[in-house]
Structures are given as C-alpha cells and as structure tokens.
C-alpha cells in the first residue's frame, strides 16, 4: 500500500512537470510565431521602400525551395537546369 501511494505521488509530480513543460513550449511557439510575423511585415515594408518586386522575390524563393527539396530527395539538378537568381 505504501508503494502504491508513492507511485501515485510520483506520477502526480511527473504529470505536473509535463504540464509546466507544455505551457513553456506553447509560450515559445507563440513568441516564435510573433517573431516570424514581425519579420515578414518588416521585410515587406523594406522591400516596398527599396522598390523590390515581391513576385520576383517569391519566384526566387520558390526556386530555391524546390532545389533544396530536390537535394533532400536525392535528385540533383544539372547546372543548365538551374535558374539564375537576381
């Protein structure tokens, strides 16, 4: 009976600790999301102020992401198939 009580107390402490860790992770995720949103907004405003075409930037990003995904999948592109980045 004493061992059972000890197990109950230990499992309670473990669950409380896990709950606290989950709360910390949620706060971190919220801060990361806020940081990403701020960064995106600032980038858009700076790009607009510099006269950068957002469609051209997005196309370059999509090309880089596709190349990176191809590398991760083990498919290398030939140098002639790569598009130059402005």
Description:
The chain has helices spanning 2-50, 54-72. It is mainly α and 86 residues long. It is built from 2 helices and no strands.
What are the main properties of this structure?
86 residues; mainly alpha; 2 helices; 0% strand
Count all strands and give the number: 0
What portion of residues is helical? Answer: over 70%
Number of helices: 2
Structural class computed from helices and strand pairing = mainly alpha
**Overall 3D geometry?**
elongated
Strand content: under 5%
N/C terminus separation: 73 Å
N-to-C order of helices and strands: HH
Main β sheet profile = none
Give the overall average pLDDT: 87
Give start-end ranges of low-pLDDT stretches.
none
Report the C-alpha radius of gyration, rounded.
24 Å
């Amino acid at each position: 009976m004493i061992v059972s009580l000890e197990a109950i107390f230990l499992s309670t402490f473990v669950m409380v600790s896990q709950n606290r860790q989950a709360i910390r992770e949620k706060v971190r995720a919220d801060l990361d999301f806020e940081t990403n949103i701020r960064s995106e907004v600032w980038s858009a405003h700076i790009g607009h102020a510099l006269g950068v075409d957002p469609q051209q930037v997005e196309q370059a990003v999509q090309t880089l992401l596709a190349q990176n995904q191809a590398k991760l999948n083990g498919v290398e592109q030939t140098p002639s198939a790569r598009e130059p980045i402005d």
